[in-house]
From TrEMBL:
Keywords: Membrane, Transmembrane, Transmembrane helix
Protein name: Unannotated protein
InterPro entries for the chain: Cell_Proc_Reg/RNA_Proc, FHA_dom, SMAD_FHA_dom_sf, YscD_cytoplasmic_dom
Pfam family, one: Yop-YscD_cpl
Amino acid sequence: MSELALFLVRIGFVAVLWIFIFSIISVIRADIFGQKVVRRATERNTPTVLSSPVIPAAPSAPVTVVAASSGAASAVATRLVVTEGENAGRELPLTGRELHIGRAPNSDLVVNDEYASTQHAKLVLMNDDWLIQDLNSTNGTYLAGARVGTPAVVKLGTPVKIGKTVFELRA
């Protein structure tokens, strides 16, 4: 093999190695710090009445509605109940407008699971509906068995799975 060909193979190998290293660093960075997400997700053509002036947010992603497996559509969820996983039986009151879920100790629902990201997902109250939003987690968030890509409405009794933990919203 000529010296030029050997030199080009070496340069190509080093380039591929650096690309691999940078991709690993970006995945680790995303898992540690999370990804900035859209703060508001609203349905199209739905007017929102606000009591205080708000700076307009970036365009939001479409909202997905998944039919409830049980429960009334008009009832508002007041608590989150963990049905499977390490925290099975635990109940959290839904008193605020957001609930953060992940491995981070400052999360509202701490999921000690190797399949959950540090900042995995969040529940947001919008127009009397709770929306689940995946925060660019590695293994995903599942609502009624379907992976959540855009913010999705969580109806009462619909199972939400993060890693090995499954929870539902209840009235």
